[in-house]
Specification:
The protein is mainly alpha-helical and 161 residues long. It folds into two domains: 55 residues, no CATH class; 59 residues, no CATH class. 59% of the residues lie in helices and 9% in strands. It has a two-stranded antiparallel ribbon. Helix 2 packs across helix 3. The longest helix has 28 residues. It is flat. The C terminus is likely disordered.
Length: 161
């Protein structure tokens, strides 16, 4: 059980974040170290529970699970409720989100202080470091801005007016 809890630390998105911040080589070392730690921790917990006699002797019957019908209970209501909450959060992320042209991180453009104006457009960043990188060489990131679909070249706004 402890291995399943620790396994959340080495999912693919988290490994990609490690790679982004630490580099590929160190991210792979970190992932391997965490995997080894997970395996060792799981074995230690298993040995400890076995020594203390805390492991169950029998498993629950599978027939009891398959014979039960579908019913509307508190679990189903909570599943529906949190599915709606999750959908609302995804909608907010898509609606309010903006992709940082430097690092590609998704940011909430209404709650971030790191922004700048470039060619009559507001550009949002996840950190001051990304803003400084952009301001040092904005042409380098212009293609990423165009790919987000939120950037319009200079003059487009005036031509439409």
């Amino acid at each position: 059980m402890i291995a399943f809890i620790y396994a959340d630390l080495i999912t693919l998105p988290i490994i990609l974040i490690y790679r982004k911040y630490y580099g590929t080589r160190f991210a792979l070392k970190l992932t391997a170290l965490m995997l080894a730690t997970i395996v060792v921790a799981a074995l230690v917990v298993d040995l400890l529970f076995s020594a203390l006699g805390l492991l169950p002797e029998t498993r629950p019957s599978i027939e009891s699970i398959t014979e039960r019908g579908i019913e509307l209970n508190y679990t189903a209501v909570l599943n529906i409720l949190f599915t709606l909450v999750g959908a609302a959060l995804v909608w907010l992320t898509v609606h309010r989100g903006y992709t940082d042209p430097v690092c590609g991180m998704r940011v909430d453009r209404y709650q971030i202080p790191h922004q700048t104006r470039w060619q009559e457009q507001t550009v949002y960043f996840c950190s001051a470091g990304c803003r400084e990188s952009f301001e040092a060489n904005p042409e380098r990131y212009a293609a990423k801005l165009k790919a987000t679909g939120r950037w319009r070249p200079r003059g487009t706004l005036k031509e439409r007016a």
